[in-house]
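Hi Y.,

Following your request, here is the sequence exactly as I used it, all 70 residues.
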Amino acid sequence: MMPLSMAGTGDMVTIQMIKGTDEVRQHLAELGFIAGEEISIVNQVSGNLIIQVKDSRIALDRSMANRIYI
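Below is the corresponding structure, written out as tokens. Let me know if you'd prefer a different format.
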């Protein structure tokens, strides 16, 4: 397992676990980041990520991406 921030552009990965407070995990779940979900890394800029989740593209900063384990 590794943090999402270590994935490369174009990688298709599956979320294994999400760490953080209940509020952070709830916020990410509302965005579609749940364990078992397949996501795709669209782009990386300075450690920040653009992620394809279902039919949406979501931007995450490095600190938030470090809470999502793949």
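The longest strand covers residues 38-45.

Thanks again,
Q.
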